[in-house]
């Protein structure tokens, strides 16, 4: 499904040089601007191919979900960890978009996400989006939506206040930090929909849980799946 946002993103993507966006080497044989060496090195989880996986099992204890997955392990490879860091903090949103396209292809190939109706990226507080200039999850979601043939909704779910950054917080603080901070506008748009909630890195799941709780409160008849690009370490050690 083509939208103006996707056409614009694809146009900008065309003018970027043929450099691998992970290692920075020039490449003419890569896919989505990732060279074959980096594609070979990516620490994929394979979770998106199976219904029962550690991410699904973890969220099972928190909220009702249809499918859950993460594409690769965040801390296993320094080069790949830095790729996420670049799109999160250094304005390289094109990296998020291209990785989103790769992930979207994997989700489509698995057949488990075929009935997703809409992708909702985890929102930043509006002021943070303005000062940073972008929300990396929007680009991730647009990349995935492009390959999966579904829409992105960036407006229904919003963040009510600007909670402190979670990167230096303990597990307990992270849960308290996001408690009740998300809300839904136009809940009728989400009624009976299968929603894919998208975030960049899964650490404790507190943010995604808070998003899902807000959506289910506003639109109890919708179904929720979760997809994060990366998962922080092996699940058994980190969640
Ligand atoms: Zn590379």
Question: Which key features would you list for this structure?
Answer:
two-stranded antiparallel ribbon, five-stranded parallel beta sheet, alpha/beta, 7 strands, binds zinc ion, single chain, 10 helices, Rossmann fold, 239 residues, 41% helix
Chain-wise SSE layout:
Blueprint: H1 4-14, H2 36-41, H3 54-60, E1 68-73, H4 78-89, H5 93-110, E2 118-121, H6 126-132, H7 136-148, E3 151-152, E4 157-159, H8 171-177, E5 182-184, E6 194-202, H9 206-218, E7 223-231, H10 235-238
Parallel strand pairs: 1-7, 2-3, 2-6, 6-7
Antiparallel strand pairs: 4-5
The structure holds zinc ion.
Can you walk through the features of this model?
The chain has 239 residues and is α/β, with parallel strands linked by helices. The chain has one domain (20-238): Rossmann fold, CATH 3.40.50. The protein contains ten helices and seven strands. It has a five-stranded parallel beta sheet, with helices on both faces. Helix 9 (206-218) links the parallel strand 6 (194-202) and strand 7. Helix 4 (78-89) packs across helix 5 (93-110) and helix 5 (93-110) packs parallel to helix 7. The radius of gyration is 17 Å and the shape is globular. The model has no long low-confidence stretch (mean pLDDT 85). It binds zinc ion. Residues 20, 22-23, 25, 35, 37-38 line the site of zinc ion. Zinc ion (ZN) binds at residues 20, 22-23, 25, 35, 37-38.
């Amino acid at each position: 499904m083509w939208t103006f946002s996707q056409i614009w993103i694809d146009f900008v993507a065309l003018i970027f040089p043929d450099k691998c966006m992970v290692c920075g080497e020039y490449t003419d044989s890569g896919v989505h601007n990732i060279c074959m060496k980096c594609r070979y090195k990516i620490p994929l989880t394979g979770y998106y191919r199976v219904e029962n996986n550690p991410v699904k099992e973890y969220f099972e204890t928190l909220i009702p979900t249809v499918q859950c997955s993460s594409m690769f392990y965040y801390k296993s490879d320094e080069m790949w960890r830095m790729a996420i860091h670049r799109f999160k903090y250094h304005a390289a949103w094109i990296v998020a978009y291209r990785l989103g396209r790769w992930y979207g292809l994997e989700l489509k190939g698995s057949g488990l996400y075929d009935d997703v109706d809409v992708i909702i990226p985890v929102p930043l507080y509006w002021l943070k989006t303005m000062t940073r200039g972008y929300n990396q999850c929007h680009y991730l979601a647009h990349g995935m939506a492009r390959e999966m043939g579904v829409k992105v909704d960036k407006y229904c779910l919003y963040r009510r206040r600007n909670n402190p950054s979670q990167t230096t917080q303990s597990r307990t603080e992270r849960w308290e930090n996001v408690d009740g901070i998300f809300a839904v506008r136009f809940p009728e748009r989400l009624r009976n929909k299968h929603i894919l909630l998208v975030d960049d890195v899964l650490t404790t799941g507190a943010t995604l849980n808070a998003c899902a709780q807000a959506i289910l409160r506003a639109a109890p008849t919708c179904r929720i799946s979760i997809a994060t690009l990366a998962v922080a370490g092996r699940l058994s050690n980190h969640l």
